[in-house]
Design brief:
Layout: E1 2-3, E2 6-7, E3 10-13, H1 24-47, E4 51-54
Parallel strand pairs: 3-4
Antiparallel strand pairs: 1-2
């Protein structure tokens, strides 16, 4: 996929199942946007463009904040 002559990549940050249990508001927000996120993932995969998934879990991290 190209945007204005440049190759595009999709970066997805911290879309994890555990967010469904954090709060009702966050649950609703994820549900409202999950369809668009999935369509974007499909579009990038189908075009052969890079997709980067970043999932941060501070409970399993070796870095300090």
């Amino acid at each position: 996929m190209e945007v204005e002559g440049r190759k595009a990549a999709l970066v997805v940050v911290d879309v994890q199942n555990k967010f469904y249990t954090v709060s009702e508001g966050l649950y609703g927000s994820v549900n409202r946007h999950i369809g668009e996120m999935n369509r974007a993932l499909d579009l990038f995969h189908e075009s052969g463009s890079p997709v980067v998934l970043i999932c941060y879990d501070p409970m399993n991290s070796n870095t300090s904040d």
